[in-house]
């Protein structure tokens, strides 16, 4: 009986430790996804405020934005690959939700594709990865 009580306490402690470790591992993934969504939402707000697509802005700003967004999207994709459970967490704030901003991000990619590669960005035909 004494062994069962000791084992129960040990198992409880191990489960508590595992849950805390899991939460600490998932939180950075959720944080990066929220940051990507908020970044895209800021671009959308800029377009709404100015009435012009962001791609019509200064070439340096567009290039820097697309490089940053590309890195964030690649990181988010990697996070979803390695931590697929993160897609089940809903953001309380709509602008921090990846599913709500991904359509706008796809629209921006299509606009960029139609306009050609902005100055400062490597083209896909240059052989760089």
Task: Please give the structural blueprint.
Elements (H helix, E strand, L loop, with lengths): L1 H49 L8 H24 L15 H18 L14
Helix pairs in contact: 1-2, 1-3
Your description of this structure?
The protein has helices at residues 2-50, 59-82, 98-115. By secondary structure, it is an all-alpha fold. The protein has one domain (27-119). Helix 1 packs antiparallel against helix 2 and helix 1 (2-50) crosses helix 3. It is elongated. 9% of the residues are buried.
Class by SSE composition:
mainly alpha
Estimate the helix proportion, in percent.
over 70%
Total strands? 0
Compute the CA-based radius of gyration: 21 Å
Q: Main β-sheet, in a few words?
A: none
The total of helices stands at: 3
Low-confidence runs (pLDDT<50, min 5 residues)?
A: 125-129
**Oligomerization category of the chains in this entry:** single chain
Order of helices and strands: HHH
Counted up, domains total 1
* Global geometry: elongated
Short recap of the structure:
By secondary structure, the chain is mainly α.
Quickly list its features.
129 residues, mainly alpha, elongated, disordered C terminus
